Amino acid sequence: MTIRIGVIGAGTIGQEHIRRLSTKLSGASITAVADPNDARAQAIAQGLPGCVVADAHDLIGLDCVDAVVIASWAETHAEYVLACIDSRKPVFCEKPLATTQDDCTRILDAEVNAGRRLVQVGFMRRYDPDFVELRGVVEAGDLGAPLLMYCAHRMGSVPDGYTTRQVINDAIVHEIDTARWLFGDEIESVQVLPSRQNPNSSGDLLDPLVTILKNNSGVLIVVEASANGRYGYDITGEVVAQSGRVSLASRASVEIHRFVRSERAMPADWRIRFEQAYDVELQHWLYELNQGQPLSGPSTWDGLAAAAVTDALHSAVETATAVNVSLPAKPALYA
Ligand code: NAP
């Protein structure tokens, strides 16, 4: 069976997902595209047999669309996810699920009322082989109880006008989900420590921004988010445990030896670093849809729990104090 997919938002990651869904993965065809830039949408649709261009809300209702991929700006996610749930169409929504906990709560209530999981959130690190191996080592327990985690999310560069709010909602949200998934525990409080400002960044952007998340077991997760380091896309993670530590190895595709030096190439951006993770997460989603299985990937609950932490981080930036995270009871649908 082939799942007929409508894609909302044909920007950077939208086009990446259209490429992998139409040329790389099995079990999908792109049948509709929506984007405010009509010329861009038309150009993409022309390259895909049978693909139509539609307004985003119309796209969700089309008979030729079985499932929806949302890759538009974060602020638009909630309204489209709610419309998909209303139409009882499965939806893969890029992270963040929504930009506030309140919006995530509306999505959660709608999905619980629908009585089945319809939403998967694009927390693709859960499908990255390196992160999966890191988690396997922590879970195996040989290192004893986890105590601390150090993460760096160094983006290389960001566009002019990028805000601290985006650093939290679009970047640190990955470390929040990683920590929840890795330790199987919720974050209970957060702190924010702005550092000396990187001269490459201007305006109100706090760069670098160090955040400390504390989970219910007391593990501290220290996250450095750097926006404009300008040397490459550098993602690190290290768990310090009772009797050892485990860290992600540097990602390098090749080593170059010249002029009495060895150099290791590093990813230029997230598309390169996480190509395999995006492939696996979407193939897994398609497989479950094709098999008629309940969705098992990152859920609305995961999106909401992450938004509760990003909301707390926004408050911590404003108040310069530690802020507690507040979560409702977890509905049985997400057990
Ligand atoms: P982008 O390049 O700016 O693309 C966003 C696209 O959405 C643009 O084509 C934009 O059109 C379109 N759009 C804006 N408002 C819309 C609306 N109301 N309805 C439909 N489309 C709309 O951004 P991006 O980097 O692809 O990011 C998109 C989303 O993916 C964000 O939520 C981001 O956090 C997420 N993302 C996730 C990962 C990951 O690692 N999982 C990586 C990158 C991005 P115009 O340009 O014409 O305004």
Residue stretches low in confidence (pLDDT < 50, at least 5 long) are none
**What oligomerization state is this entry in?**
single chain
Outline type:
globular
Q: What is the end-to-end distance?
A: 29 Å
The side-by-side strand order for the widest beta sheet comes to 12-11-7-10-9-8-15
Helix-strand pattern? EHEHEHEHEHEHEHEEEEEEEHHHE
Range of strand content: 15-25%
Kindly name the structural category. Answer: alpha/beta
H/I helix tally:
10
Which cofactor or ligand species appear?
Answer: NADP nicotinamide-adenine-dinucleotide phosphate
- Give me the count of strands: 15
Q: Which range best describes the helical content: under 10%, 10-25%, 25-40%, 40-55%, 55-70% or over 70%?
A: 25-40%
Average predicted confidence as pLDDT: 97
Largest sheet: 7 strands, mixed
- Gyration radius (Cα, Å) is 20 Å
Brief rundown of the structure:
This protein has 335 residues and is α/β, with parallel strands linked by helices. It contains ten helices and 15 strands.
Structure description:
By secondary structure, the chain is of the alpha/beta class. Helices cover 37% and strands 23% of the residues. The chain has 10 helices and 15 strands. Strands 12-11-7-10-9-8-15 form a 7-stranded mixed sheet, with helices on one face. A hairpin with a 4-residue loop joins strand 9 (209-215) and strand 10. Helix 7 (164-183) crosses helix 10 (300-319). The longest helix has 20 residues, at 164-183. The structure holds NADP nicotinamide-adenine-dinucleotide phosphate.
